[in-house]
């Protein structure tokens, strides 16, 4: 009798596990999670990179928050950075300088935080492209797609409020543009702008509001939605790539324990490692060079962080269209920043339903992924949209490009406007054709294989 | 089954696999040792006074070593494993749905089924919506309303122009091609009143198009771009153009700051200039139009 019973192991960890199970009844429901299947393909790890970037952001951000002063009141700088000594600067800027120059490991933390923010958005975008081009957003995962797009928007908001906090000259310029766009919204714009900043620009409560948004409101939203995103993922289980084993009614992959756990932890360690290297060796946002923010000062060229580049490009490309219709003035920033930006995100939110009606054309549950070639229309649309966004992104640096390549700025802008209309259909059509021909290249082998099975 | 020729026996395969695993485990162990060393190195650097680049590098080595060790562990020691889980459609079965609905109805009780329940639910929804509204309205406390603020600046008739150091400006001290950022005296740095005083080239100024009075060859425009509100910080004296560095809106200084190119929709507002008894430049009124980016009711100044 005793020989058939598994040997009880006696280590402190096992004792702790038993102690917990005595109180929480964990073993019974958890066994199946040890063998939960994770698709073994690198593209499924992009979302995890975003997750680890967020972990880094939370840790480094907490460190920064211990030193940062959200206050625009002026103080005299007396720190070690010589060019600013004796100048009147805001307490926010002063605390960021102190954090960078006087707090041990402070600069490292600040730079890792900024690099992690760039990686966070980049990983979200890459994850989203994987989900889009493989059709992973299809029923029953529409809800998680919508949550994902909201997370992307929140990551923009986190980034924007974050780089406005140091109160340096570059961050103030970005804030001024954002405020101007809000101001231009018909009927409610001026009131909304005043409410956001606690008065007319530059506002009395601007820094403290940005701070509370950046360290409390937006992270709370991010974490709540991330929790929902992951809970739905576990509930619905992963999609998987087509393979000889994969079917609509199963999940094929590595077991959660130990393979996937180790892989995930390894990926997390590498994500932190790369961010540490970037933060340690590659200078980012050297706010001491920009100087303190004065509303009447500016420098050129001024570009925002990469993920805001598309908004910058849109307002630069848009013609100087400003109309007064029935006494209501439509400013020239409204249509590109609010109109086109809103349209882009409306389409993104609605994509699962657009896809169901015109692209995928069915209302079935899909757990087996499509490869980009399997749905040439979706692939073509995706590539065209990416091309358009790439052109708009490039336009966000039109001044830098014009001066480096010695093209007239106006000519370049006109060229880029044309590119917005000409390039996306070309690349979209090419992607469509390539997907089609890749499909055709596969068909004969499939046919012979299936006929061989039939004759056997 | 002679040794050395033909396929390896199962025993040999097992031994080879075992050796591979051992090698992987040794490499992983080495990686973890590297991580431990790097972590202590990091502490040493910190205690010695800290050095950003070295800290970043050691942090990189420590985490990359942990990542390498974990990767070797799963790829080399444990090896590829594949599991296949069952999956069921997300939709509950019809039976389950019916059972749930029946239980739900039963729980809610007989008494409120029918017209009265709907009535109660509607009132509850109404109460919830009203309360929600009552909780949103105090958002109005976040700031004052715009009122006439968007239409006026600190400029008033008779206020002197001063530079960024607060020094008033004699009209004759500003030559052609010279530019100065100016404010009303006592309001240096004011975000809304900031203006550019520019000495134009002789005979370049198209006076017939100017709507406000000016002094000699001087013109003064709002420094806030009418597009997105950046300071219009670049001046190309050779062509008399002001350029906004944010989105490259370009304004013709000699022609009422009309838009030459770029996304701005209207000219920079102009400040009427005069000279006081002491010979200093003064404003003779506010700007010719609301400053900064356009807004929906800018053509309807309520009190003007």
Report on the structure:
The complex is a heterodimer of chains A (456) and B (304). Chain A is mainly alpha-helical. Among the domains of chain A are: 42-247 and 264-300, Cytochrome Bc1 Complex, Chain C (Up-down Bundle), CATH 1.20.810.10; 371-443, no CATH class. Chain A contains 16 helices and six strands. Chain A has helices at residues 12-24, 27-34, 46-65, 91-101, 106-133, 142-164, 169-183, 189-197, 206-236, 256-281, 287-290, 309-317, 334-359, 376-395, 398-405, 409-455; strands at 37-38, 74-76, 88-90, 250-255, 323-325, 328-330. A two-stranded antiparallel ribbon of chain A has the order 1-4. Chain A has a two-stranded antiparallel sheet with strand order 2-3. A two-stranded antiparallel sheet of chain A has the order 5-6. In chain A, β5 (323-325) and β6 (328-330) form a beta hairpin. The relative contact order of chain A is 0.11. The model of chain A is unreliable at 447-456 (pLDDT under 50). Chain B is an alpha+beta fold. Chain B has three domains: 10-78; 94-142, no CATH class; 152-283, Rieske Iron-sulfur Protein (3-layer Sandwich). Helix content of chain B is 34%, strand content 13%. A four-stranded antiparallel beta sheet of chain B has the order 2-3-4-5, with no helix packed on it. A four-stranded antiparallel beta sheet of chain B has the order 6-7-8-9, with no helix packed on it. The termini of chain B are far apart. The mean pLDDT of chain B is 91. Classes of the chains: A mainly alpha (456), B alpha+beta (304). Chains A and B meet through α5, α7, α8, β4 and α10 of A and α2 and β1 of B. β4 of chain A pairs antiparallel with β1 of chain B.
């Amino acid at each position: 009798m005793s020989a058939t019973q598994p040997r009880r192991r006696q280590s402190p960890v096992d004792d702790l596990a038993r102690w917990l199970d005595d109180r929480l009844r964990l073993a019974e429901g958890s066994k199946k999670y040890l063998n939960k299947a994770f698709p073994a393909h690198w593209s499924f790890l992009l979302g995890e990179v975003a997750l680890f970037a967020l972990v880094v952001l939370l840790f480094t951000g907490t460190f920064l928050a211990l030193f940062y002063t959200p206050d625009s009141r002026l103080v005299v700088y007396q720190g070690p950075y010589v060019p600013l000594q004796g100048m009147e600067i805001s307490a926010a800027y002063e605390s960021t300088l102190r954090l960078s120059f006087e707090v041990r490991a402070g600069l490292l933390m600040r730079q890792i935080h900024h690099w992690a923010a760039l990686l966070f958005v980049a990983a979200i975008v890459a994850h989203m492209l994987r989900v889009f081009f493989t059709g992973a957003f299809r029923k029953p995962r529409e809800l998680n797609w919508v949550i994902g797009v909201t997370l992307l928007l929140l990551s923009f908001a986190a980034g924007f409020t974050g780089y406005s906090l140091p109160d340096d000259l570059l961050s103030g310029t970005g804030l001024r543009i954002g405020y101007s766009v809000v101001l231009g919204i018909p009927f409610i714009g001026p009131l909304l702008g005043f409410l956001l900043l606690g008065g007319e620009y530059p506002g009395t409560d601007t820094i403290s509001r940005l701070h509370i948004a950046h360290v409390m409101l937006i992270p709370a939203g991010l974490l709540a939605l991330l929790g929902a995103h992951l809970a739905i993922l576990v509930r619905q289980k992963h999609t998987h790539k087509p393979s000889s084993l994969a079917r609509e009614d199963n999940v094929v992959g590595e077991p959660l324990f130990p393979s996937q756990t180790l892989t995930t932890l390894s990926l997390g360690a590498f994500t932190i490692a790369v961010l540490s290297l970037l933060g340690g060796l590659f200078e980012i946002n050297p706010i001491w060079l920009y100087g303190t923010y004065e509303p009447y000062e500016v420098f050129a060229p001024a570009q925002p962080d990469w993920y805001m580049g598309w908004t910058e490009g849109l307002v630069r490309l848009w013609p100087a269209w400003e109309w007064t219709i029935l006494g209501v003035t439509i400013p020239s920033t409204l249509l590109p920043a609010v109109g086109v930006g809103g349209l882009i995100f409306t389409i993104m939110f609605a994509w699962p339903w657009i896809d169901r009606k015109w692209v995928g054309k069915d209302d079935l549950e899909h757990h087996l992924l499509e490869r980009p070639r399997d749905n040439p229309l979706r692939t073509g649309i995706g590539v065209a949209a990416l091309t358009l966004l790439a052109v708009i992104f490039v336009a966000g640096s039109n001044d830098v490009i014009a001066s480096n390549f010695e093209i007239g700025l106006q000519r370049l802008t006109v060229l880029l406007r044309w590119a917005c209309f000409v390039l996306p259909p070309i690349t979209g059509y090419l992607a469509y054709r390539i997907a089609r021909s890749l499909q055709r290249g596969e068909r004969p082998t499939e046919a012979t294989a299936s006929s061989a099975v039939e004759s056997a | 089954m002679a040794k050395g020729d033909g396929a390896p026996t199962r025993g040999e395969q097992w031994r080879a696999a075992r050796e591979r695993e051992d090698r992987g485990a040794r490499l992983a162990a080495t990686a973890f040792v590297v991580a431990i060393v790097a972590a202590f190195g990091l502490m040493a650097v910190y205690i010695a006074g800290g050095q950003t680049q070295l800290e970043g590098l050691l942090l990189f080595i420590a985490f990359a070593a942990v990542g390498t060790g974990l990767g070797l562990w799963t790829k080399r020691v444990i090896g590829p494993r594949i599991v296949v889980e069952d999956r069921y459609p997300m939709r509950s079965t019809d039976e389950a749905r019916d059972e749930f609905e029946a239980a739900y109805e039963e729980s809610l009780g007989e008494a409120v089924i029918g017209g009265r329940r709907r009535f109660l639910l509607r009132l509850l929804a109404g109460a919830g919506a009203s309360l929600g509204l009552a909780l949103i309205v105090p958002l109005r406390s976040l700031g004052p309303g715009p009122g006439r603020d968007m239409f006026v600046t600190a400029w008033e008739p008779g206020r002197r122009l001063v530079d960024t150091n607060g020094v008033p400006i004699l009209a004759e001290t500003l030559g052609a091609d010279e530019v100065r950022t100016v404010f009303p005296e006592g309001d240096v740095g004011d975000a809304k009143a900031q203006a550019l005083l520019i000495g134009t080239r002789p005979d370049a100024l198209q006076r017939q198009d100017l709507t406000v009075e000016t002094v000699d060859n001087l013109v003064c425009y709002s420094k806030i771009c009418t597009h997105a509100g950046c300071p219009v910080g670049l001046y190309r004296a050779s062509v008399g153009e002001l350029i906004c560095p944010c989105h490259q809106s370009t304004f013709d200084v000699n022609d009422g700051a009309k838009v030459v190119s770029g996304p701005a929709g209207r000219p920079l507002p102009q400040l009427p200039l005069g000279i006081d008894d002491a010979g200093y430049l003064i404003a003779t009124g506010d700007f010719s139009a609301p400053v900064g980016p356009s807004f929906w009711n800018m053509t309807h100044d309520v009190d003007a």
